[in-house]
Amino acid sequence: MRNLVKGLLLCLATAPVLALASDTSGHAEHGAHVHGEAQLMLATDGDLLEIMLQSPAANLLGFEQKPATEAQQSAWQQQQALLKSGQWLQLPAIAQCVLQQQQLEDPWAKAGQHADISISLSYQCKAAELLNEVTFTLFSQAADLQQIDVQWVSGGQQGAATLSTKQPVLQLPGTE
Q1: Residue 152: phi, psi to the nearest 5?
Q2: CB neighbours of residue 55 within 10 Å
Q3: Radius of gyration of the chain, Cα coordinates, nearest whole angstrom
Q4: Which residues contact 96 (CB under 8 A, 6 or more apart)?
Q5: Which of 67, 95, 120, 140 is least enclosed, having the fewest CB within 10 Å?
Q6: DSSP states of 3-61 as a string?
Q7: Rounded distance, CA 150 to CA 152, Å?
Q8: In angstroms, rounded to a whole number, what is the distance separating the alpha carbons of residues 145 and 35?
């Protein structure tokens, strides 16, 4: 099942890239690196919930270069702890989801000026059929984040949503 969920997330992640590649106009509305915006993919399969977030480092840290000062290093350490804990989102308690695994990629592993932070979270939910919404508190924890573009697959359905400080809740279809 885990491979199915990862496959669904891979499909969601590559769909915008494929759409841009087939765009012959030469214009891209949304690049992979837009300050103020992040991309999130969410998929459920049975009792599994997988979430992948990608954001420019500037949105979450206030800077993009590798931390050079003590203050920047401290900010990066705090943000790592927050992202890995999953405490930047709230799942309905009734769904009884427990974080099983997280993977945070080093944003400065690749050369370049624009660093992106990528985090994957895997949850096991005892009552996944009751997972009908996800609230994103990351907006209050990352001052430069204005928008999260979400693509999701859940309950045999798929969709997209744009979340913001005014609308931080992703509504999912009932899976009962």
Answers
A1: -140, 155
A2: 27
A3: 16
A4: 125, 126, 127
A5: 140
A6: HHHHHHHHHHHHHHHHHHHT-TTS--SS-S--TTEEEEEEEEETTEEEEEEEEEHHHHH
A7: 6
A8: 8
